[in-house]
Design a protein that fits this description.
With 209 residues, the protein is an alpha/beta fold. The chain is built from eight helices and four strands. A four-stranded parallel β-sheet has the order 1-2-3-4, sandwiched between helices. The radius of gyration is 19 Å and the shape is globular.
């Protein structure tokens, strides 16, 4: 079975499409969707979001490879990479290793940010999970707008879309899909419970396709 958080759920969906005979079930954790980006407020988008397409291509095709080869991204701590998902629940030595791997220049060469549109098209074409067991696990806590009131309206729209449209639609990708809300869906216990449930359903009887 497959499990992945946030944008890694894109890989789960595409892998399921490419290799359906190798997937018995899946857990999507705080999953996003190609159409979700249209609902994101500006403060949630990356620094390149406002760049013209021509400048983005130049940054991805010219500047980024040069900065990688010269070691500039390593020197700057690979800015924009963010904290790896779930790192807060790991032991200190595991946190250091995951942080190192996430900031390794070779790991971000040609990264998802530069190939996002191509990846989104692959997700859109990936279809569904048929009758395989599927759990969509997401937090029950709404997104909160930054102080000042500037983004309260768009954040409310995002919450409406995320909880009442997107997550139920993702659960409907399987006829055996289930939406599970947890206060903190990234906690290991919540993820293990979801994985155990899918594995149990798979062992009870392989779904037909």
């Amino acid at each position: 079975m497959l499990a992945g958080p946030t944008l890694a759920t894109f890989h789960v969906r595409v892998y399921n499409h490419l290799y359906p005979d190798e997937v018995a079930g899946a857990v999507l954790i705080h999953a996003s969707d190609p159409e979700a980006f249209a609902y994101e407020p500006e403060y949630m988008k990356g620094g390149m979001a406002s760049f013209p397409p021509s400048l983005k291509r130049f940054m991805c095709m010219v500047m980024k490879p040069v900065m990688l080869d010269l070691g500039m991204l390593r020197l700057m701590g690979n800015p924009g990479s963010g904290r790896p998902e779930g790192i807060d629940y790991l032991q200190p030595e595991q946190q250091r290793e995951l942080s190192f791997l996430s900031k390794n220049p070779e790991a971000v060469r040609g990264g998802e940010g530069c190939e996002l549109n191509e990846g989104l098209d692959e997700v859109r074409a990936s279809g569904d999970f048929g009758d395989r067991p599927l759990i969509v696990l997401t937090t029950s806590k709404p997104f909160r707008a930054p102080p000042g009131g500037q983004y309260e309206h768009v954040t409310a729209q995002l919450n409406e879309y995320w909880f009442h449209h997107l997550q139920p639609r993702l659960a409907a990708l399987s006829t055996r899909g289930e939406l599970v809300l947890e206060d903190d869906a990234e906690q290991p216990d919540a993820i293990v419970r979801a994985v155990d449930k899918v594995v149990g359903e798979v062992r009870q009887g392989q779904p037909s396709r």
